[in-house]
Specification:
Helix content of chain A: over 70%
Number of strands of chain B: 0
Mean pLDDT of chain A: 89
Radius of gyration of chain B: 14 Å
Helix content of chain B: 55-70%
Mean pLDDT of chain B: 86
Distance between the termini of chain B: 23 Å
Structural class of chain A: mainly alpha
Largest sheet of chain A: none
Structural class of chain B: mainly alpha
Order of helices and strands of chain A: HHHHHHHHHHHH
Distance between the termini of chain A: 17 Å
Shape of chain B: elongated
Oligomer: heterodimer
Largest interface: A-B, 18 and 19 residues
Radius of gyration of chain A: 19 Å
Number of strands of chain A: 0
Strand content of chain A: under 5%
Number of helices of chain A: 12
Chain lengths: ~280, ~60
């Protein structure tokens, strides 16, 4: 991996982690399209990826810093009092309910799932599936558009857990974590605005915990070879993630998932065709 | 539901110990101790105890 490739991957990670287009899918497909020979299991590359995730998680924490302060104090208050009494505490426990299924799925299923679905053709096929999931979510949402939108503060804990569990679909490279959780939010009668906000808040502990658990990779001797790339890559991923979440929170005030669906459908179809023609491997 | 919370908590703590020691090798990618599995299970166990506390209806009011 050259320095330029590392910086481009950092930008790609920062943008695609939050846009509903599958960051993992893009980090498999774009290097394959550009002919980059990256050993994804190489310790130096894994250390670099940890740095990118760390930067992304920090960007999300900074962007939602006021929300997280209120949520943490709300959680602490509810723990002391033994009951959930306010909206901040409720949102905090909704995030906990949503994070537990993803954490369990990530720990117990990630290894087996990733080893099964690493080829560009399968990743491209899952990108098409990701598009179809978003189109289906939008269609079902429009069909129930007359129903009253449910505010995030009134989301049942069962739905919070289901939205969190839907993120586990993103263990399949090509399925977007944010796409799956936003669609699950829409199907729980939330607005695009609230579904996206809940998805981005859910992403923070998930990405942050994954970074912390994998942090020893950054301290391993192999990581010293990519120290500069990891540091600058982490900063670049953080900056682009911050810009992405700032853009997307405004975007979902008035827009929906369909443009991302069309993008995934087009890009996935092109990559799938190239993969079965053996143009990319 | 309180009994369920206790059972979940105890089960998670027991599994966490087994994964930490490497005695349990279910859904793992390589043999040996699995500290990440153990940490996540321990956290879920603690959350089950929190759930138990909420069900006990303790309130300052």
């Amino acid at each position: 991996m050259t320095f330029l490739q590392a910086m481009l991957l950092a930008i790609l990670q920062g943008v695609s982690e939050l846009f509903p287009v599958s960051s993992l899918g893009h980090t498999v497909l774009l290097p394959a399209l550009l002919g980059w020979r990256i050993q994804r299991s190489d310790p130096t590359f894994l250390a670099f990826v940890v740095a990118l995730h760390f930067g992304t998680a920090l960007a999300l924490l900074v962007f939602y810093r006021h929300d997280w302060m209120r949520i943490v104090f709300g959680l602490a208050r509810s723990l002391v009092r033994g009951r959930v009494e306010d909206a901040d505490a409720r949102l905090g426990w909704l995030l906990v309910a949503g994070t537990v299924p993803l954490a369990l799925a990530g720990v117990f299923l990630e290894g087996p799932v990733r080893s099964l679905f690493g080829s560009p053709a399968l990743v491209a096929a899952f990108l098409v599936v990701n598009a179809l999931v978003m189109f289906a979510g939008e269609r079902l949402k429009r069909a129930s558009a007359l129903a009253t939108a449910r505010p995030l503060a009134k989301l049942p804990f069962r739905n919070g857990a289901l939205i969190g569990a839907s993120q586990a679909l993103a263990l399949l490279p090509g399925i977007s974590r944010s796409g799956a959780s936003i669609v699950a939010g829409l199907l729980s009668d939330m607005t695009h605005d609230d579904a996206a906000r809940f998805s981005f808040l859910l992403a923070t502990p998930a990405i942050f915990a994954a970074s912390v658990l994998e942090f020893p990779r950054l301290l391993a001797p192999a990581a010293h070879a990519v120290l500069l790339e990891s540091l600058l890559g982490g900063i670049l991923a953080g900056l682009t993630a911050y810009a992405s979440v700032a853009f997307l929170t405004r975007y979902f005030h008035t827009n929906d998932l369909r443009p991302f669906g069309w993008y995934c459908l087009t890009f996935g179809t092109v990559c799938f065709t190239l993969a079965i023609m053996k143009v990319i491997t | 539901m309180r009994a369920l919370a206790v059972v979940i908590a105890l089960a998670c703590f027991a599994l966490a110990v087994l994964y930490w020691n490497g005695a349990l090798q279910l859904a793992v990618s390589h043999p040996g101790p699995h500290h990440t599995h153990a940490i996540v299970l321990a956290i879920v166990g603690v959350l089950a105890l929190v759930w138990l506390r909420f069900q006990s209806g303790v309130s300052s009011r």
